[in-house]
Amino acid sequence: MEINILPNNEKINLSDACFGVDYKKTLVHQVITSYFSNGRENYSSQKNRSDVRGGGKKPWKQKGTGRARAGTTRGPIWRGGGVTFASGTRNYTEKVNKKNVQRRNEINNVWVA
Questions:
Q1: What is the pTM of this model?
Q2: What confidence score (pLDDT) does residue 66 get?
């Protein structure tokens, strides 16, 4: 494969093993997204009602107070209670199949584009 360099119109031969491959857009996208997502860390997490400390004793008796029933002070409607649908740690890793593509070929695909 030959390319021209513009200022002097010099011709350079490039190896077909490196630059002669077909451009595969989906595989390049898969490799780039997996590269960035594998380097990602998850720090956000919240406590649900089972993760919050305390709340073992009933706040008041079941009957006779005129208030609504309550079994714990750590439910989502209480101050100091847990979050209803708490976000936890998440795994962002993505895998690229070696059978479909090799790492070197995707890097060459990026250079070809």
A1: 0.56
A2: 94
